[in-house]
Design brief:
Elements (H helix, E strand, L loop, with lengths): L1 E11 L6 E8 H5 L18 H6 L1 H9 L5 E7 H7 L6 E5 L9
Antiparallel strand pairs: 1-2, 1-4, 2-3
């Protein structure tokens, strides 16, 4: 499977490690006007205990930014990043293939 994406942002590793996070958006979404944002803005979520918060963390993060849904993130080490010479707005292709199982 091969999909077309557009580089949305390039961020340094949050822990200071020698890699970057490249955020990609579907080229189809970009052509259609981007990822729709919630008209009411971010919504607050209420938690009664830490277990509930951890269970719903993904929902909370997706709802906070409004634009986090539909974004694919790829972690590249610095060598790969420099070799590819990526910039925001570049068109890229992501290809996924299933490894053949040889019964080993």
């Amino acid at each position: 499977m091969k999909k077309e994406y557009v580089v949305r942002s390039i961020n340094a590793a949050p822990d200071g490690a020698p890699y970057v996070i490249v955020s990609l958006s579907s080229a189809k979404e970009i052509r259609e006007g981007g990822v729709p944002q919630s008209p009411s803005g971010p919504k607050a979520m209420e938690f009664t205990n830490m277990n509930d918060m951890m269970k719903d963390l993904n929902k909370m993060l997706a709802g906070m930014g409004g634009t986090l849904g539909g974004v694919t993130a790829v972690k590249l080490d610095m060598h790969e990043y420099k070799q590819m010479n990526l910039s925001v707005g570049d068109k890229v292709f992501l290809e996924l293939t299933k490894a053949e199982s040889l019964g080993v």
